[in-house]
Amino acid sequence: MPAKIDYKKCIGCKRCYDLCPMDVFTIDKETEMPKATYNEECWHCGICWMECPKRAIDITYPASMW
Amino acid sequence: MTLDRLANNVIDTDVLVIGGGVAGCPAAAKAAEHGLSVTLVEKSKVDRSGSAGQGMDHYGGAFPRGMTVDEFVEIWKELGWESAWYFGGKFADPNRLYRLYANGQWGVEELEKLGVNMKWYDGKIRPIKSVRQYPFLRIHWMYCKPEMAAGVKKRGVNVLNRTMITDLLTHNGTVVGATAVDTRTGAFTVIRAKATIIATAACSRIYDPETPVPWKYKFRFHWCPASVSGDGWAMGFRAGAEMANFEQTERGYRYRDDLTLSQGNRNNEGVSGNQFTWDGEPMCGRDRADLERQGKTPIYVTIENIGDDFQKRVEIAYVDERMISLKAAQDRGFNPRHHWYELMDDRPNQLHVPPGLLGDMDFKTTLKGLYVIGDSVAGQHDVANAAVSGFLVGDSISSYIKQAAEPIIDEAQVQSIKETVLAPLSVKDGTPPMELECAIRYACNRYVGTFRAEGKIREGLRRLASLKREFLPKLTANNPHFLTRCLEVRNLFDVAELHMLACLERKESRDFQIRLDYPDKDPKYEGMLLHQKLVNGKITLDWKKQGQMTLAGSHKEER
């Protein structure tokens, strides 16, 4: 999973949803929190990670990119 | 039938700018400063989209102000641009190149007015004479896109984020606007425009991604954002605009550690390369394939000996351009100061600098009402060229707008585009876009990858045609997000076809084209560029002589 949200830290500001160039995130209807729905399209640019005010997002790499 | 019934929204504008990157924002802002109504359409979100979405560490056009054509030609010769692979010298109109570089300093001032930081820590512009051998500025551009987005909004530009332009609209050969789809709601929009500017990037998605994992994480490329799918080229091509240089694939090393080091960032700090074979022999100028056969690979590069000061400077370059690099290094326990980086295979990775839409001295395409700026122009690249071409077009377009006829939209054309564009939403049990994109990439990699020959290219064209016939109509999307991906795949088909046909047509090896059946340069192609366009559903191929410098030697740009 490239973009992983830590919901203990996430404040639901939706910045990641707002800025992701590939539109990987959606907003969960029930919780109104961002969700990494289209993670297979993540290209690890790190924009969500660097823009998140709480550093609640981690970018992790699959084995082939290690 | 009226337009209002066909489309969810109808927008009227003087200028439509397609793509909100480093070319599109300056063009939109400048046109708005002249009092024109401007609509800027961006597939992602302007604040963090495009090639400079994560940031940028260099501005490559800091040539002296008031440089005459003669002086420019002298610099050109000195730098050896005719043979330098990374520069547009041989792929572009040299007159336009002069205009871009002669206005490089003007671009710096205009960017500052737009709100973009051009200064170094000490509050001064920081020029560098780098190993890339051309004058450029080191810049802190981590926030260039938020800055540009704010500048554009301040000037009253109507910005449509998360909106993908699908096709250009034409009337009697004049471009009169475009159709668009909202990537989140699927709303279909018609934009009626007196002038349209294509400001999209190049195309980095017809070749294999760097990661060997099929299906997942397929979008990653270290130079280009993953959203770059040749949209501007494909829509221009379908509307009949002339294109050039599509056989010239750009090749690049793949760094296993490209997240932690890019040759570019190092070069941009003036640190020269130190490449060596695994047993420590210098790499310089040796053929990689030979080294592979001799068991001399992997090839490594290191910055361990450059000194603490330079290492710090390289690290700052990462922060300016791609902060995630530092995190990736940390996660892997990779210390850029001590560890070696592996340079993996040198493979085609994108269509970038040479190919593109033909633009003249004023960035007009061969279609009336259609301009092209930035990376979309044949033989043009770099943020400086992108920004300057944007400012130049934005600055001059009002004279075209003043005499342009009211755009007339052909409703039948809109209807037919709408049916094609929205079709994947009603296909059940079809092919997901990712599956088809992987197939296109496989075909390009297999048949027109590094080494080309007639038999392979012809097979590639057959493969591509059958994929298009069998699978394009079966593309399926269960929501607007995947519809966007489907529309990108449609564009990839057009770019791949142009590419393969051009590879077949150039029967020689030159620059990025390596033909095993024609291993040498053929003098008859000297200075000849391959032009392509769509005429009555067929792609024409024409050889045309590259433009010569026609501006008078004492001519000077006065900005």
Question: Can you walk me through this structure?
Answer:
The complex is a heterodimer of chains A (about 70) and B (about 550). Chain A contains two helices and four strands; from the N terminus they run βαββαβ. With about 70 residues, chain A is α+β, with helices and mostly antiparallel strands. Chain A has one domain (about 5-65): Alpha-Beta Plaits (2-Layer Sandwich), CATH 3.30.70. In chain A, the strands form two sheets. Chain A has a two-stranded antiparallel ribbon with strand order 1-4. A two-stranded antiparallel ribbon of chain A has the order 2-3. In chain A, strand 2 and strand 3 (about 35) form a beta hairpin. The relative contact order of chain A is 0.33. Chain B is an alpha+beta fold and about 550 residues long. Helix content of chain B is about 35%, strand content about 20%. Chain B has 16 helices and 18 strands. In chain B, strands 1, 2, 6, 7, 8, 9 and 16 form a seven-stranded mixed beta sheet that branches. Chain B has a four-stranded antiparallel beta sheet with strand order 15-10-17-18. In chain B, strands 11-14-13-12 form a four-stranded antiparallel beta sheet, with no helix packed on it. In chain B, helix 14 (about 435-450) packs antiparallel against helix 15. Chain B is globular, with a radius of gyration of 23 Å. The N and C termini of chain B lie far apart (about 50 Å). The mean pLDDT of chain B is about 90.
Bin the helical content of chain B: 25-40%
Strand percentage of chain A: 15-25%
Q: Low-confidence runs of chain B (pLDDT<50, min 5 residues)?
A: none
Report the top-level CATH class of the largest domain in chain B.
Answer: Alpha Beta
Put the structure in a nutshell:
The complex is a heterodimer of chains A (66) and B (559). With 66 residues, chain A is α+β, with helices and mostly antiparallel strands.
Summarize the helices and strands and which ones pair or pack:
The complex is a heterodimer of chains A (66) and B (559).
Chain A: E1 3-5, H1 15-19, E2 25-27, E3 34-36, H2 47-51, E4 57-59
Antiparallel strand pairs in A: 1-4, 2-3
Chain B: H1 3-6, E1 9-18, H2 24-33, E2 38-41, E3 58-59, H3 69-79, H4 94-102, H5 104-114, E4 127-129, E5 135-138, H6 144-154, E6 158-160, E7 163-171, E8 174-182, E9 188-198, H7 231-239, E10 243-244, E11 250-255, H8 263-268, E12 275-277, H9 288-293, E13 299-301, H10 308-321, H11 324-332, E14 341-350, E15 356-357, E16 370-372, H12 383-403, H13 411-422, H14 433-448, H15 454-471, H16 480-505, E17 528-535, E18 538-545
Helix pairs in contact in B: 2-6, 2-12, 5-12, 7-16, 14-15, 14-16, 15-16
